Amino acid sequence: MDMSRYLIYTAPGSGHLYPLIPTMLELRARGHEVVVMSERDGLPPLRDLGFEAEPIAPEIEARGDDTWKAWTPIGAMRRSVAMYVDRARYEVADLWRALAHWNPDFVLVDNNCWGAAAAAQAAGVAWAQAATFLLPLVTPDAPPFGLGLKPSRHPLARLRDAILARSALPIFDVLLPPVNAMRRELGLRPVKHVPELYMQAPLVLSYTAAPLEYHRTCLPRSVRFVGPGEWDPPAAEPAWLAAMRRPIVLVTGSTLFQDDAELVQTALDALAGEPYDVVATTASLDPSDFRVPANAHVERFVPHSAVLRRAAAVVCHGGMGITQKALLNGVPVCVVPFGRDQLEVARRVDVAGAGVRLPKSRLRADDLRAAVRRTIGLKEQAERAGERLRAAGGARAAADALEQATIAHSRMGA
């Protein structure tokens, strides 16, 4: 096809940007131009890769993620919805500015950017939504999203799912009026339920696949599962990592602060004296705050790809990025979910047999030590899960879908 200009618009956080970079690189390799709007911290690696990139509005980044303050999974999801609502009103003008500046042929919007999505929809441009996290799908053949419930065909479980689906949706819908007011001002119809906001585009790219996504018999036609995008900023292997000779257990916390220091410290305590080397990355937490045993090394950031090549297991919070990256490398995962969508991720790792789910209420050194030992024994299952995720196509499948959508829109306008 002829060269097209693709605008990529993401929410703050490397978890929203990095999984899309392989798609950007694939589009450019096919002769297309790619321009990006993302958080300020994401601009240097994008520009190092040769992409033209500009920051999203500062007001969007200023509205931080406070889901860690919630006491319950429902409370955390309500805080997430409130955050996306608050950011949405700034995203509308932000995307219009980007459209005027770059005049793209196609726009790919992070599906947590509800204002940018509404602006793209109202502008009538060719567009799609990108889900780098699990889609909050509502279908009768799977449990309601967010609580990490185990799927079951038993009639009582199906009744449970139906009751929860009817009762849970209104809990979040009470936050919709500002978004619907914005949509009406743009000439768009309001939505009844929050999950509809993730399904507004003619094409919805979900950057996951089976076995982390359940089989659905009534999937919206717009959804395309393309599998994970894996990318790390290029960096040389540190000398201390190269010197490690034993199997490695990678321990990592959330990139966005969620008060999960307990996970890192408990893992360090649990694995002290075990026959592994431990690499812990603290991300949003200060590495100097931790007690570090002799068999461990703690850093704020280390490219995970360098560690995963030699890892026997990963201990994490259930972030979608690290979980999928581990499985793509055939590394089983011990997930201790703290909030956001992590209860869902933990359950799906468990259902896939590619790791162990340890509830936060059981986060103690002895329980975590036992869970890690079980996790290490799931190497073959993790490798099979990684093969299935990779079979979805990744960046090639995403670029194919975007090219097809671009052609379809141009034909409609011809």
Structure write-up:
The longest helix has 30 residues, at 73-102. 43% of the residues lie in helices and 14% in strands. The strands form two sheets. A seven-stranded parallel beta sheet has the order 3-2-1-4-5-6-7, sandwiched between helices. The chain is an alpha/beta fold and 414 residues long. α13 links the parallel β12 (333-335) and β13.
CATH architectural type of the largest domain: 3-Layer(aba) Sandwich
What are the low-pLDDT stretches, counting only 5+ consecutive residues below 50?
none
Sketch the major β-sheet.
Answer: 7 strands, parallel
- What topology, given as strand order, has the largest sheet? 3-2-1-4-5-6-7
Give the helix/strand class: alpha/beta
C-alpha geometry: globular
Instruction: Spell out the helices and strands N to C.
Output: EHHEHEHHEHEHHEEHEHEEHEHEHEHHH
Query: Helicity range of the residues?
Result: 40-55%
CATH class of the largest domain: Alpha Beta
State the total count of DSSP E strands. 13
CATH names the topology of the largest domain as: Rossmann fold
Radius of gyration: 21 Å
* Residue-averaged pLDDT: 92
Number of domains: 2
Terminal CA distance reads 16 Å
Beta-strand percentage? 5-15%
How large is the count of helical segments?
16
What would you give as the CATH superfamily of the largest domain? Answer: Glycogen Phosphorylase B
Offer a quick outline of the entry.
By secondary structure, this protein is an alpha/beta fold.
Helix-strand blueprint:
Elements: E1 5-9, H1 14-17, H2 21-29, E2 33-38, H3 43-48, E3 52-55, H4 58-62, H5 73-102, E4 106-110, H6 114-123, E5 127-131, H7 155-173, H8 177-185, E6 204-206, E7 223-225, H9 239-242, E8 248-252, H10 261-271, E9 277-281, E10 296-299, H11 304-308, E11 311-316, H12 320-328, E12 333-335, H13 342-352, E13 355-357, H14 365-376, H15 379-391, H16 394-413
Parallel strand pairs: 1-2, 1-4, 2-3, 4-5, 5-6, 6-7, 8-9, 8-11, 9-10, 11-12, 12-13
Helix pairs in contact: 2-16, 5-6, 10-14, 12-15
